[in-house]
Amino acid sequence: MTVSEIVTTAYLVRHGAIPEVVRAGWSGEAPLTRGTSVVVETSRGPELATVLELVRPNGSAPTPDPESLFPILREASEADRTTAREQTRRARDEFSKWTQRITEWNLDLQLIDLEWTLDSSRFVLYVLNERGPECTKLALQAAAAGYGVVDVQPVSSDGLVTVPVEKKGGGGCGNCGSH
């Protein structure tokens, strides 16, 4: 079954340690209300998100293509919220260790936050920088040091430094299109 066959309603949802607003599709019977916690399958994997608003079609904006929506997997359970709280504590504990690693690796980056996806399959480092070689070096150094695939997400004073959106990508940081 494809997303277009199951998605019935589009919502704006906010997710991530450095918040990002995306369009997500819900196939559940009951409508979602503002503030509802949901689990969304983002390009990084499952993440806890908050429903902001129903996407309403208007004359100037077409109805969203169901294939362009991130699927809302379910309303968040207490177990999902507990996992998210534990990961927030874990991130707080890891922050100084990652700051030290960045310093030891002589990278011109400033770590501002970090997080895991809800299933702990992806790890994201948010750094104050434009997308470029220092981000790529951090991802490569982390992999070489045995930390696995680490997504390095640059953040500027305008917010997240974006790359082309893919439904499910590789990892790291840079311009190779694997993000």
TrEMBL record:
InterPro entries in the record: PSP1_C (IPR007557)
Cross-referenced Pfam families: PSP1
Residue ranges of domain PSP1 C-terminal in the record: 71-126
Protein name per its UniProtKB record: PSP1 C-terminal conserved region
Organism of derivation: Planctomicrobium piriforme
